[in-house]
Write a structure and sequence with these properties.
The protein is built from four helices and nine strands. It has helices spanning 112-124, 144-153, 168-172, 199-211; strands at residues 33-36, 47-51, 83-85, 91-93, 102-107, 133-138, 160-163, 180-184, 190-193.
C-alpha cells in the first residue's frame, strides 16, 4: 500500500500560485506556482510559499497523515484511507484510487476560478494517458445542493465528485484553499498545482506521473 507521501513541485509553467485560491470577489489570481509540504499532524497552515520563477519542478516532501477529524480510516497514515459519498449519492472508497496515478481536483461551488478551471479539466480528460482518472473533491461548503448545481452548471458531470461537507477530506491531504489540484503518481509522489491551471498543464503533468 502506498505511503501517503506527497512531493510538492516548485514552479510550474504558467500556473497561478498554488493554494492561493480564488477570492470571493472573483479577483484574478496572481501568476506563479506553489509548493506544499505536508507532515504528520500538520495544521492547515502547512501550505508552502509561491515561487514565481517558473522553474522546472524539483520536489521534496515529507510523510503526510490524516487529521483526527477526517472520515473513518483503517490506516491513519494513508490519506487515501477514507470513505465518502459522491454528488450522485454513491459511496466512494478512497483506497480504490490508492497505488494509482490520479488527479485530485479540490473545488468549491462558489469559486469563480474553479468554475473557469472546470472547462480546462473537461478539455484535458480525453487527452490524459490511459488509466489516469480525475476525481473532484468538492468542499468549502456545507450545501450539497449547491455542489450538485456547480457540477451541472460547469458541465463536469462525467467525472466522479466526492462530497466533503465538513472539510475532513481536504484536511487529510493538507489542502486549505481552492482551487488546488494534486497530481499524484502510483508511489504517492505529487505535484501541487494552483488555480488557473490549463488543459495543457494537466496533460503535461499527467504524462509525467504516467512515465514514472
Amino acid at each position: 500500500m502506498r505511503r501517503a507521501t506527497m512531493l510538492a513541485a516548485a514552479g510550474m509553467l504558467g500556473v497561478v500560485g498554488a493554494l492561493a485560491g480564488c477570492a470571493t470577489d472573483a479577483e484574478d489570481d496572481a501568476a506563479g506556482a506553489g509548493t506544499m509540504q505536508a507532515e504528520a499532524g500538520a495544521s492547515s497552515d502547512a501550505a508552502g510559499p509561491s515561487d514565481e520563477g517558473g522553474s522546472t519542478p524539483e520536489a521534496s516532501g515529507e510523510e503526510m497523515v490524516d487529521d483526527e477529524s477526517a472520515s473513518a480510516s483503517s490506516d491513519p497514515d494513508n490519506a487515501f484511507a477514507f470513505t465518502a459519498t459522491t454528488t450522485t449519492g454513491e459511496e466512494f472508497d478512497g483506497l480504490s484510487i490508492d497505488d494509482r496515478d490520479v488527479i485530485l481536483w479540490f473545488w468549491a461551488p462558489w469559486c469563480p476560478t474553479c468554475f473557469a478551471e472546470a472547462g480546462e479539466i473537461s478539455a484535458a480528460l480525453p487527452q490524459l494517458p490511459d488509466g489516469i482518472e480525475v476525481i473532484g473533491m468538492a468542499g468549502m461548503s456545507d450545501d450539497l445542493d449547491y455542489m450538485k448545481q456547480f457540477v451541472d452548471d460547469a458541465d463536469v458531470g462525467g467525472m466522479t465528485h466526492v462530497v466533503d461537507l465538513d472539510g475532513a477530506l481536504w484536511r487529510r491531504f493538507d489542502v486549505v484553499s481552492q482551487a488546488t489540484i494534486l497530481v499524484i503518481d502510483d508511489s504517492g509522489d505529487a505535484y501541487t498545482l494552483g488555480g488557473g491551471v490549463t488543459a495543457d498543464d494537466l496533460v503535461d503533468y499527467a504524462e509525467k506521473i504516467a512515465a514514472t
